[in-house]
């Protein structure tokens, strides 16, 4: 392979040589047989005390490798720093022992085309700007310092010397490059639909075991991370449903990382309370499936004396999730200790998903399961869930 630029250079060298009285002689001679490699050095060999000798083209270029970058760009190609340090190395594939030097080029996407200049490893750059719109590009090429300084086609000084017919450039013509973007701005994450509960604002009831939250971030391509209490849950920008949570109090914490790995220094969190689903296998009750109810079902009966036991532990705030209306009956809540509480489900207007506060968050601490017993006769009772926290 002969580089086009070399062809020009060789022609020029030949023209320079074709001068004076030698001209006719040279024209009749075959082209000089230069040793065109492979060789390791372009210094003349075989000369005498009078100089001369033969040049050979070192045609093997050193290879350049970027060995590390600090910080290392993320898989998305970002660093979250205003400075970077890039280390590199050069090597020969053959036995060349000529010293290797380097030239670097650092292209700022907002600046005119950069040019090569001598550099050593590591190359450092500071005062970088956030560059989401374009890449910074670093390039480095290794040079065979000795042979890069020699035009192998030139005739050695002195008598009888000859140059090579070509000089393949003595630097790596396929430079090592790396591109990256800079993002030093941390994203902010948001939980947009925090549940509201006037009876217990700090630990609001969600009327489901599978609550949905609308999550958002201040910039695009933010990967959210969600934990409920201490368990990680998959989540994303938009609506995420956390399915089948156990009853009781929970804390959802949301954070997010942008492609540069910046995270929100103030993660968002929200507390909420999930009710216990009321279920039974007793023949006195009928279970009906309906997705809008806690646990996807409710139980119903008209039988006086029918009862169901619901687990509960260490609670003050106690609420019954049930239907109320003009035709509904009466139930009694029986506790392991203390007096039973009678709840009349009669209301003027029907409410399919009603919440009856039996005792509030300032009430005495209770523990142990609650038994709900029907004390009305032949009136519908529909029970859905119980919040005890
Ligand atoms: Ca060399
Ligand atoms: Ca050279
Ligand atoms: Ca060369
Ligand atoms: Ca239910």
TrEMBL record:
Tell me the keywords, alphabetical order: Signal
Signal peptide residues are 1-34
Q: What is this protein called?
A: Ig-like domain-containing protein
